[in-house]
Every structure is written in C-alpha cells, then in structure tokens.
Amino acid sequence: MREPTESGMALHLRGVSKRLGNDVAVADVSLDVKAGEFLTLLGPSGSGKTTSLNLIAGFLRPDAGEIVLDGRDITSLPPHKRNIGMVFQHYVLFPHLSAFDNVAFPLRERKVARREIRERVERVLELVRLSGFAGRFPAQLSGGQQQRVALARAMVFNPGLLLMDEPLGALDRKLREWLQFEIKRIHREVGITFVYVTHDQEEALVLSDRIAIFNEGRIEQIGSPDELYERPRTIFVAEFVGESNLFIGPVVVDKHGDRWIACGEDRIPMPQGAAADIAVEQAIMIRPERLTVQLSGHRDPRTATVGGRIRQIVYLGPTRRIEVEMTNGRTLIAREVAAQRCRLSEGDDVCVTWDAQESVVLGDHRTAEPLAEGA
Amino acid sequence: MIPESFNGARSLAFPPESWSTQWYENFFNDPAWNDALLTTLQVAGIVTILATAIGTAAAFGLVRGRFPGKAVVNALTIAPIVVPFVIFGIGVYGVFLAWHLVGTVEGFVFAHTALALPFVVVPVVAGVQGLDQRLEDAAASLGANRVRAFRLVTLRLLLPSILTGAVFAFLTSVDEIVISLFISSSTRRTLPVEMYNSITREIDPTIAAASTILLFTTMLLLAFAALMRRRRRYA
C-alpha cells in the first residue's frame, strides 16, 4: 500500500447519487473540497450528509456520479485501499485491543517496521494528549478519551483525508466544546483535509472553513460560516443556521419606485438594488441582532418598522433575547447586548426597526403562486 | 462415586474398607473400556470441529443473512434439542441401518453433530448480534481487506462465544447415551453405552473409575468455558 503524503488531498464529488431502499438518500451532489480544508456537511437527520460520508469512505457505492481524491478516481475502489481516515460516531474502537494496539492497527496492516510503529503511535497519542493511556483498553477510557483514541487511529497512517461522522454527538456539552477546539488545533497542526458531519450548527460554525448545508439529499448552499450566516440564499439555510426573522409576501412598488414586501398589514422595505419581480411572492430575512426594539418610532423608507408587543424577555448572559408579537400574530426575535440597561419590560407596545439594507433577500419562495396586490 | 473408584475391595460397599487404584488400571487395560474411551474421544473430537465450524457459519447466516424462510431455518436449528431423544434415536437407527452406519465412527459423528449444533449456534448467534457491524467498517477504513477484518476483529471478538459452543458440543457428544444406545454395535460403542452395559451385566467398581474420569473431564471443560466467558469483558 502506498504511503500517502503529509499534506491534505483535494476531494471532488461529481453528480453523486445514492438510493437506499425506496428513498433517494443523496441526489446529484457535487462538491469540491480544497486540499487542507475543513469542510462540514451540516443538515438535519436524514438529509444525506452521513450517506455522503459513507460514499466517500467507500462503505457504499454511488448509483451515479464519481468521486475523485487527489486526482484519482476512487469511485469503485474498496474502502481498505482508499487511504482515508474515518472517525465514527460511537468511536468503534476494537474492544479487545489496548489504546496502543488500536492506534497501531492501521500501521500493522501496512507492514510498518515495529520500531517505527512505536514511534508513530507515541507521537500521535501525544498529539491527542493521551500519552499516558497507551496501555488502557477502550472499556477503561472515558467517552472523550475513546474519541481521541479513535481520532489518533484515523490519523496515524497519514491519510490525505479524514472523515468524521458526528464524532462529538455522544459527549456532554463541556467536553464537546473542549474537543471542538482540540479538533481545530489538530487540523491546523497536521494539515489534513477534514470532512466533518454534524447536525449541530454551532459546532459547524466553530470548526469549519466552509459548510455545505444538506437538505433532502441535496446541497442547499455551500460557503464560509459568515457567508451562510450573513447571506443565506434559501429559507432553509436562513432558518437552519442561526436564528432568523422571515417576512414572506408579494412584492409591491410605491409611488417613489421603492419596493416593499406586503406582509399582512406591515410593509417591509426591500434592500435597494434587490432584483424582485412585482407581485411575485418573495422572502426576506433579518437576523435578530440587527433589530432595534424601541418604545416609539418613526417611519422612514430606509428603515424597516414593525409594530408589536413584547411577549417575553430572556436574559442569556451576554445578550438578551426579546420576543415581540407582531400585530399579525407572528413572533419576531430580537437580540440586544445585555450590558445595556434594559428599558423594556414584558407587555410593552414597541416599535421594531432595522436598516432595510441589512435585510437579505432569499432566492426561493414557499409558493410560486403570484398574488395580485394593489401597487 | 469418587471414593468407590479407589475401593480396595471387589464390591461397591460404602464406605470402602481399603484403598487402591486397581479399578483405574482395570479401566485402562480392559480392551472393552479402552475401545469405548477411544471411540468416545475420537467421535467427540470430530463432532466438536464439525459442529463448531458449521454452527458458526449458520449463526452468521441466521443473524446477517436475508433469505426467505429464515424463521423456519432458525426453528430447525434448535429442533434436535426439542425432539425427544428416543424418537430421534429410533429415526436415526432406521436410517443408519439402511446406510450401514450403525456401529461406525461416522455414524456417531453424524448423529452427535446434529445434536451438538444448537449448542454452538445459540451462543454464537448471541455473539454476532452483540457485535457492532461498524467494527468491520472501521477495520476496512484502516486498511484491512474483508478477510483480514473478519479474522482480526469479528472472529477474534466472537472467540469466547465460539469456544463456549465448542465446549458444549464436545460435552454433548461425550455425555450422549440415548441415541448412542441405538446406533452402537457389539464391537463399537461409546463410553456411556459401555458404562450402561457394564452396570446391567455386573457390579464392578471399574464403572466408578469411569464415572470419575467422565465427571472430571466435564467439570474441567465447563470451568474452561466459564473462564472464556469471563475474559470477554476485557479487563
């Protein structure tokens, strides 16, 4: 078996599809992962992210499409010849082998000399900070320790690509946060390409260079964490990554030529320059921290203004989360820095405003049916 | 029974008045006892190997296989324990008469293997069910081909279950008497059959020696099986 390079490898998926039973698990997915990149596949359960990972690892064969690793077509290569490291959700350590022997397993399969095995296993155990635990069996290790042994085992043979399937899913919150930073540190130190699967959007934001959002077997959007947060392209992405306030309604034009979205009784100004057909139902989104909640407000075409009543104020430490019930009955979420003194209380009639330029026009609409609305 | 086997007198009086190992000498020198012991060990040895191999393969098929009539096959595997031994014995005797297998090592091997199979299938099925199938995926991702992944991980982890099955297969064959009575001949019989014959013929403390040997073999193997099961916990 050929010994891989020290650096990460580029991975390409082209039109990959996979049917599992009667369901289309992955539908025509194309994906380019740069060498050394940390890419996360994020989506709800059943969205095709784990199936995609199993296709890359070779545990499943795609029905269509091809998978190219480091310029080599690996679509029909069996998993043991792919040289891809994999960390499983429930660790899947060999229970009959010590931590040392678990990590040595891939090196022994590659007929590495005994002394080199010892050196490399010790080095990688040091990297995951488990130097003193080489002799322990999996049953004698905590969940976090087991997961770090699994990580060491998946890295010790210098794969060009490391796959991780919800590796922190079974751990408690504190440990998870600490391991997230450990994984990020290790990624920086070893330079391997990481493809990481999770359904936890916070985890994805912390870890990733880029995130691919999966929905119903397809990639909805792929981009850096701030791109996905600041410029989501679809309602699904806007709602899945962070909290969002959505306004959906037909586009109307006033006598000055400004475009608005008619959302019940409210008129929400669209950002200038946004391309939107009149009378077509359109969705725009504003993040909670962009909102200002005031006791009184004034109307201005460049400022979006919505009236409502405060239903609840929740103190979250650094921020306050304010739920405002709009006159149409829907809820608006605002977030403000908690260091400011709170002038508001539950039950207050308020005016919620934001800079219209900060609204994001989403590319899809829930219904394609155009609504006739007086312009 | 154990003190009787060291009895110095030629009767089964209790407690023994004097001590000797003459019945053990007799057991190992008398060709009737000796042949029976050798036949038993030979049959049990082959049965253990056959039942363990077939039973392990069957267990994998029953757990992981997907085929029509799986439930029926599953039920048939444990049938030999459920069917009364006498009925099984009569059936086997009829067939073996026609096939000229009565009083042969092959005859004992076939009959005992059928009896021993469930004792292998049951623990190995439990073992395979308790095995994380992703272990083989993990081994594959680490560079082991299917055969090596199976040998180094799956089979290694099932070893305690398989050895438990093997011990019980051996004991089933060694202890079996009902069916063996049917398919024994005057020249070839197993140890339990010889013991039965001996006790109906005469009162001879050699049978106590034979019993003691059988008892200790059984206990030793059961202790071994228990040890294997304890080792499965891995520290």
In short:
The complex is a heterodimer of chains A (about 375) and B (about 240). By secondary structure, chain A is an alpha+beta fold. Chain A is about 20% helix and about 35% strand.
**Main beta sheet of chain B:** none
The side-by-side strand order for the widest beta sheet of chain A comes to 6-7-8-3-9-10
Which fold name fills CATH's third level, the topology of chain B? Answer: MetI-like fold
Helical residues, percent of chain B: over 70%
Main sheet record of chain A: 6 strands, mixed
How many β-strand runs of chain B?
Answer: 0
Label the structural class of chain A.
alpha+beta
Q: Which oligomeric state applies?
A: heterodimer
Q: Of all protein chain pairs, which has the greatest interface, and how many residues does each chain bring to it?
A: A-B, 30 and 22 residues
CATH class of chain B: Mainly Alpha
Our Rg estimate of chain A from Cα atoms comes to 25 Å
The CATH architecture of chain B would be Orthogonal Bundle
Would you list the SSEs of chain B in sequence order as H and E?
Answer: HHHHHHHHHHHH
Q: From the 3D coordinates, which CATH architecture of the largest domain in chain A would you assign?
A: 3-Layer(aba) Sandwich
Q: What's the mean pLDDT score of chain B?
A: 86
Strand tally of chain A is 20
